[in-house]
């Protein structure tokens, strides 16, 4: 190992997961690394936010792979995902099967999934997770998926936004208000209208109807007021950035195959 490499590794921060996910994370990485380079696995979703803010309990692990990690040739991409899926199946942790873009399983009582994220790129300097070489998504990357995918299409394409995602956004307004504002500022005007209407149409008891509840929230947040709070943040984004956003949209939609579009370059 060169001195430069050693210095880079020492400079990385290590993300420590809560105890209910730590064992499952190590097991999942061990299974998946049979077909996918460990350093290409990027943990994202609510588990990353919980590790950073400690605001709620996450119950699953969402791994993503930058599309570049699977190679330029589609055949190589499929082969690597198949190897990973066979490893999960061989370990007795098979759940729902897999396709070209995903593998799902369960270890230590925790469900995990791996998908391809077209907006992610491999970068040096990411935080690593636990004692592994797997990487942690940035807060920005977590919210790219949450803001666009869930707001526009809902949990299962039905327009419903999970309570945990809106809760995460309200906590982000406290912890990193500029970060969330900067994301909303990059929405196109038509996207702002879609999200504002989605939030306006949510019934007063929306959190009681959501089957994907928050587990153990730790912040004193009025759940009833969350949709209105987030809606206000959406419509208050910096209007001066709209012309730029119209030319280079960040949240560019579902590619039709269940994966998000190109995202920021």
Structure, explained:
This protein has helices at about 5-10, 20-30, 45-55, 75-90, 140-155, 165-175, 175-185, 190-200, 205-210, 225-235, 240-245; strands at about 15, 40-45, 60-65, 95-100, 100-105, 110-115, 130, 135. The chain has two domains: about 5-135, Beta Polymerase, domain 2 (2-Layer Sandwich); about 140-245, no CATH class. The model is unreliable at about 1-10 and about 240-265 (pLDDT under 50). It has a six-stranded mixed sheet, sandwiched between helices. It has about 260 residues and is an alpha/beta fold.
Strand content: 5-15%
Proportion in helices = 40-55%
| Whole-number tally of structural domains | 2
Largest sheet: 6 strands, mixed
What string gives the helices and strands in order? HEHEHEHEEEEEHHHHHHH
- Strand line-up across the major sheet: 4-5-6-3-2-8
Distance between the termini: 31 Å
Helix count from the secondary structure assignment: 11
If you average the pLDDT, what whole number results? 77
Structural class by helix and strand composition: alpha/beta
Which CATH-level-2 architecture of the largest domain?
Answer: 2-Layer Sandwich
Regions with little confidence, pLDDT below 50 for 5+ residues: 1-11, 241-265
State the total count of DSSP E strands.
8
Fill in the CATH topology of the largest domain.
Beta Polymerase, domain 2
The global form is: globular
Task: Give the helix/strand layout.
Elements: H1 3-11, E1 14-15, H2 19-32, E2 42-44, H3 46-53, E3 60-66, H4 74-90, E4 94-99, E5 102-107, E6 110-117, E7 128-129, E8 135-136, H5 139-153, H6 163-175, H7 177-185, H8 189-200, H9 206-209, H10 226-235, H11 242-247
Parallel strand pairs: 1-7, 2-8, 3-6
Antiparallel strand pairs: 2-3, 4-5, 5-6
Helix pairs in contact: 5-7, 6-7, 6-10, 8-10
């Amino acid at each position: 190992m060169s001195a430069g490499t050693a210095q880079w590794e020492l400079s990385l921060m290590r993300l420590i997961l809560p105890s209910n996910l730590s064992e499952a994370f190590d097991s999942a990485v061990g299974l998946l690394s049979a077909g996918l380079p460990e350093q290409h696995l990027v943990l994202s979703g609510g588990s990353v936010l919980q590790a950073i803010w400690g605001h709620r309990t996450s119950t699953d692990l969402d791994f993503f792979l930058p599309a570049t990690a699977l190679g330029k040739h589609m055949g190589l991409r499929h082969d690597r995902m198949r190897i990973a899926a066979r490893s999960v199946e061989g370990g007795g942790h098979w759940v729902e099967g897999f396709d070209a873009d995903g593998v799902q399983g369960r270890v230590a009582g925790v469900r995990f999934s791996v998908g391809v994220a077209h907006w992610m790129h491999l970068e040096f300097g990411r935080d690593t997770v636990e004692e592994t070489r797997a990487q942690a998504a940035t807060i920005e990357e977590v919210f790219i998926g949450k803001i666009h995918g869930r707001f526009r299409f809902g949990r299962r394409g039905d327009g419903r936004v999970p309570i945990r995602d809106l809760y995460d956004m309200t906590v982000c307004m406290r912890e990193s208000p500029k970060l969330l504002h900067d994301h909303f500022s990059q929405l196109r005007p038509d996207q702002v209208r879609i999200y504002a209407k989605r939030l306006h149409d949510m019934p007063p008891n929306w959190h009681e109807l959501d089957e994907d509840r928050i587990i153990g929230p730790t912040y004193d947040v009025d759940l009833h007021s969350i949709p209105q709070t987030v809606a206000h943040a959406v419509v208050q984004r910096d209007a001066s950035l709209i012309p730029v956003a119209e030319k280079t949209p960040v949240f560019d939609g579902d590619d039709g195959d269940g994966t998000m579009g190109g995202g920021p370059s």
